[in-house]
């Protein structure tokens, strides 16, 4: 898409463009009269579409405003990190959409994608969707609905093509098949007795007049293009039928004329025939030249025969040769008239398409809910979030290993969970599944958990993974800090935040300081529901400083030189990081691992862990304490060994012994 000229976005010009499109005096009825920037964008978009389509846009009949207060905000980083509809591998089955989308129609699939990227905050709307899903599961009606939807086409797109006069014959045939399926859907929905499903049924309608017209006008399985002809059904127009009969029955006319002329002339070998070069002709051999009637006009001389034409045959030739051309032109005119007639019903067809798309998604939610063992969420006004035995929807489906379900609990007294544990232990999965469960609940879908209760949520932020943006001159750490800054500036006490390994892109002390400061700010100032995963064990001391912070860890155990990940979330900090064991699993050479173990022991022996080691039970290098001056250093700082007497040296040795 090329850049548009600045004047396309000029507010007054754009406003006039929008008013002209909707044929109104103002935009108050659409609720956007006081939104100049939005009107400017809408006007520029209309201008672009008209330029590219080179036609009127009768199917664009209204404009709707959307407020951020209606939805849970998801920024670009969060959509990417949660892998809603895109995976870095390019494989859709590794995304939430890939697992969730069992829509039958293209309309339903697009609707599901929109819902997934725009979760709602309205508990009333969401509870109505839950009610629909519950009714469809209880009655098993979703099976009949999905079976019927297999004969439903993409009438959302077809309606647009009808409006633009670009609909092909098979589009109308698909529309006819779709309208013919509506009565069965009405019957299935009425049996559920669910008020919301009955509203969808009413919105769909049945449209018998359009259906009857298409049944009469269009043949079964029409050709792809109208220019090929044979689209309009026999009996729809008498004049078209006459033209078709004329061109199609020419062979019979030639047979009848040949028999008639043979009888009249007495020439038994006389032929009436046709070729593309000379058209229609009567052929007789030279042996019968004396029997040729006077009204025969010589047309062509051959070696052994003469070819003639008569006034009757010439008139028939003119009529037949033009009949096919006239038939195609007349059929095209009838087809355009048919499109114009259907175009008067565009609005009801668009409402029908929207209802079919929503019904398709709800049936998909019901099928997924029963197949994947999902449960109905509970939305409440009280602040908090409780997940019992939550699972990751995608990981559970693509992994051959049984998934370990875990709980999450947030409340006013429990706002931040600092998550420690080994790499590959499941910290990222645990964090993402929490966000996905919240998101799925807010599109009206059942969730992968035994139970889920959620209070108001306004935004979901994630800071997960490492990526750079070299084209914009941003390093991996710069991208990390930009995403972190966005969270710190825009999160509220109703937000859900996932923070993974903050500060790992810079030096150890810088990274630890940043991670500590970010966690402290989120706990004290923002007070959002935060899952904060880290390998900086020093951060676990925050739990003793602030009541709203709690430590949890992903469990693992060692077996010889190997590590076994238990993937179970337990209270308290992790005992160690298991970094060397994970490196070994990744295939790092044994000599490197052995060298690392030696260095680790040396580092641990040079630092006294004192109170933190006693309190938490782990034996990792404490980076804050490594800056504390060791008493041996202060004792030896002013000693000059060459000036010590033997007695002084012995006394110094006893002092050193006492400090160790």
UniProtKB/TrEMBL annotation:
Cross-referenced InterPro entries: DNA_mismatch_repair_Msh2 (IPR011184), DNA_mismatch_repair_MutS (IPR005748), DNA_mismatch_repair_MutS_C (IPR000432), DNA_mismatch_repair_MutS_clamp (IPR007861), DNA_mismatch_repair_MutS_core (IPR007696), DNA_mismatch_repair_MutS_sf (IPR036187), DNA_mmatch_repair_MutS_con_dom (IPR007860), MutS (IPR045076)
Keywords from the UniProt entry: ATP-binding, DNA damage, DNA repair, DNA-binding, Nucleotide-binding
GO MF, any single term: ATP-dependent DNA damage sensor activity
SMART domains: MUTSac, MUTSd
Domain DNA mismatch repair proteins mutS family stretches: 495-511
One Pfam family named in its UniProt record: MutS_III
One cellular-component annotation, GO: cytosol
GO terms (BP aspect): mismatch repair
Database matches in NCBIfam families: mutS1 (TIGR01070), PRK05399.1 (NF003810)
Family label: Belongs to the DNA mismatch repair MutS family.
Role summary: This protein is involved in the repair of mismatches in DNA. It is possible that it carries out the mismatch recognition step. This protein has a weak ATPase activity.
Protein name per UniProt: DNA mismatch repair protein MutS
Organism: Crenothrix polyspora
